[in-house]
Amino acid sequence: MGLLWIHAVEQGLAYGIAALGVFLTYRVLDFPDLTVDGSFVTGAAIASVLLVQAGFDPFTVLVLAFVAGAIAGTITGLLNTQLGITNLLAGVLTMIMLYSINLRIMGRPNLSLLRVATATRVVEAVWSPLGAFAVLAFIGLLTFAIKLLLDGFLRTELGFALRATGDSESMIIAQGVNTKTMKILGLALSNGLVALSGALVAQYSGFADVGMGLGTIVTGLAAVIIGGTLIRSRRVGWMTLSVLLGSLVYRIAVILALRYGYVVGFEASDLKMITSLLVVLALVVPYLRERRMKKVSSC
Amino acid sequence: MWSRRERAQSDDLIDRPGSVRMDHRKDIAEGAKVKRSIAVLLLVALVGCVGLLAAAETLKIGICKIVEHPALDAVEQGVIDTLTAAGYAEGVDVEYLIASAQGDFGTAISIAQNYQSQNVDLVVAIATPTAQAAFEVFRGTDVPIIYGAVTDPVGAELVPNATDPSGNENVTGVSDMIPVAAHLQLLKDLGSDIATIGIVYNPGEANSAILTDMALAAAPSVGVEIVTATADTTANVPLAAQSLIGRVDAYYVTTDNTVVSAIDSVLAASVEAEVPFLMADPTSLAQATLAAGFDYYEHGLTVGQIVLDVLSGVGTDEIPVTYQPTAQVHLNLDIAAEIGFEFPAAVIDQSSTVLYGGAVWEKQNP
Q1: Of the four listed, A216, A241, B24, B242, which is most buried by Cβ atoms within 10 Å?
Q2: Residue B237 has pLDDT above 60, yes or no
Q3: Which residue from B19, B132, B209 is facing A112, i.e. has the nearest CB?
Q4: Closest approach of chain B CAs to the CA of A273, in angstroms?
């Protein structure tokens, strides 16, 4: 069972990078971006093709996946800011485009990574003294490095302009900031992170599949919202940490549902319901506790 | 016969990355440590008891599929029925852990990891992504993985070679490859005026893309032309099917999950175009002019047979990729009458069942 918890944390952190991307658009930029369902696969596709067909290093491909995702985000940004397509539709259009593009990149719908040296396999070999914790250590370090970089960026002048674009667009225009550029930048960064997450997840899973991005926006939003309930803070560092925590809670809910669902009579087909209910539980418990505290203090 | 292997102790777990063996007692202790809430504690204790009791005598088989789907559900049922028929009573000799990723690829990995932590003795993985996920998680262990409903196990890199199993690791299984060239020939045999065949498919489905590529490759030698229409979602299948009206002399749909989910719309288009429609899955005979291929329940029975072989001690590196035998042709005379189509005598001779007047009739002495 211990191993299962380790795996849950590994996955929670790996998907947490995508959740950070969703956080950047949904929370910071106030831009509900559906591109991510496509750009997640773009990252996985680019990484897999370069690994399998071009023999690239499994860590370099993570960076290249980020670049590919950033390009996808830029397309959504251009559709929205330059061609005046509403934010939801711009994201949807790019996502649909990416379906075809991802198939082109991979050349087929499913690309196996079972027989190449993926990042997780290299780490397992190189960090073998860490045993079962090697992959966790790698994904943890990568995720927290990205979190810290993102925190640092959001505290720069450019980062403040980006946050202000989401908070109060008219005010920041008055300050002389080009909000269109800010939106494109935010979308590029966000989708870059999502694609990096896709590239990491593909290597972790041992394959890339054109259908693997389905629901990225949903799990990403779940992580952002769960995290926001568990840690309530307006400080950047805490907010990004809460997103990672939210992603963890979501994956742990999946594992708990898989592992213990049948004990209480659930069937395989009930999985999504149990996952959702566990997430509801995670959200409701702190809320109820807080309400009770308020009642007590008001007495 | 199958006898239960002695379990390795968990002490060496940390020394062996990727090791799957865990001790149940440690398991419970750790679970309890992590979860503080009383409810979860109770659950853990309960599962622990059940787990300990069950682990003492029964065989544990984990079955996972990528999504709920009639064909994949039928494979699962076929596997269980084969084992039951062979004397593995459910709940006594064998315990099944059954899970569906419900379309989520991350969950597919979690399912395999959960099976690993529960010390399953064997995994049955249904469909390509689940098989790949199970293989990745159980890599380097001695837990056999038996896949089903995987069209191209070599392309998916589950096994290195289709005919020579000696390079197989802890994985083998049954391919659901269908004889595409034979199906094209069957369509051509329907009439001399059949020259162009329309295929509706989802290019995003690994199995379907392979089968369509095979059809395109086989078309010149059969002497037909292929026109394709793609549908990336079930909602787009009607439009894709309609786009072929007037452009093709027959419709052909392979084992494409997206298209099969909206098969009535392909049938409607073929009826409107008054051309025959061949479906590569006999379970959909009611929604086609004719069907060929195998039933996915039969496929499950074949997968179950491989499971039995492995349980009886045959190594996964001794079993090559098994292909589902398929030769039967099924005709839907009701639909044929609706579009004013008459089957040639040769095709009727070839058929094993016909659908007529809403009922299925089987040939008595084929």
Answers
A1: A216
A2: yes
A3: B132
A4: 11
For residue A8, the enclosing domain spans 2-213
Higher pLDDT, B328 or B20: B328
For residue A298, what pLDDT is reported?
Answer: 61
Over residues B342-356, the pLDDT tens digits come to: 999 999 988 888 999
Extended beta strands in A193-291, E state = 207-209
| B206 in contact with chain A, both atoms CB, cutoff 8 A | yes
Of A131, A204, A212, nearest to B15 by CB-CB distance is A131
Asked if B110 reaches chain A (Cβ–Cβ under 8 Å), the answer is: yes
Nearest chain A CA: its distance from B40 CA (Å): 9
| Contact at CB, B133 and A206, closer than 8 angstroms | yes
The alpha helices in A107-215, defined as continuous H runs, are 119-126, 134-155, 157-167, 169-174, 179-205
Helix (H/G/I), strand (E/B), else coil: B247: coil
CA-nearest residue to B119 within chain A is A1
If pLDDT is split at 50, 70 and 90, which confidence band does A283 have?
Answer: confident
CATH architecture of B58-176+298-323: 3-Layer(aba) Sandwich (3.40)
Hey, what are B8's tokens?
């390795």
Residues 47-76 of B with CB under 8 A from A: 47, 50, 68
The radius of gyration of chain A's CA atoms, rounded to the nearest angstrom, is 20
> Per residue in B23-76, pLDDT tens?
343 444 444 444 454 554 455 455 554 444 444 468 999 999 998 888 899 999
Contacts of A138 in chain B (CB under 8 A): none
Contact A3 B117 (CB under 8 A): yes
Q: Is residue A218 part of a domain?
A: no
Candidates B12, B20, B114, B205: best to mutate against A (most CBs of A within 10 A) is B114
Residues of B in contact with A262 (CB under 8 A): 97
Nearest Cβ partner for B111 among A112, A134, A258: A258
Q: What is the DSSP letter of B245?
A: T
**Chain B residues in contact with A15 (beta carbon < 8 A):** 106
Domain total for chain A?
Answer: 1
Residue A73, in any domain of the structure: yes
Contact between chains at B50 and A263 (C-beta distance less than 8 A):
yes
Query: Which CATH number is B180-293+328-362 given?
Result: 3.40.50.2300
Residue A223 and residue A247 in contact, taking contact as beta carbons nearer than 8 Å: yes
Cα B146 from chain centroid (whole Å): 11
Q: What is the pLDDT of residues A100-150, one digit of tens each?
A: 999 999 999 999 999 899 999 999 999 989 888 999 999 999 999 999 999
Min distance A142 CA to chain B CA atoms (Å): 19
- Domain-embedded: residue A288: no
Give the pLDDT score at B365: 59
The CA-CA-CA angle for residues B119, B16, B45, to 5°, reads: 35
pTM, full prediction: 0.83
Beta bridge partners of B278: B252, B290
pLDDT (0 to 100) of residue B327: 67
User: A43: which chain B residues are within 8 Å (Cβ-Cβ)?
Assistant: none
Please check whether residue A296 lies inside any domain of the structure.
no
A31 DSSP β-pair partners: none
* Digit-coded pLDDT (tens) for B82-132: 999 999 999 999 999 999 998 889 999 999 999 999 999 999 999 999 999
Report the alpha-carbon distance of residue A294 to residue B252 in Å, rounded. 66
Q: Which of B145, B178, B213, B154 is nearest to B296 (CA)?
A: B178
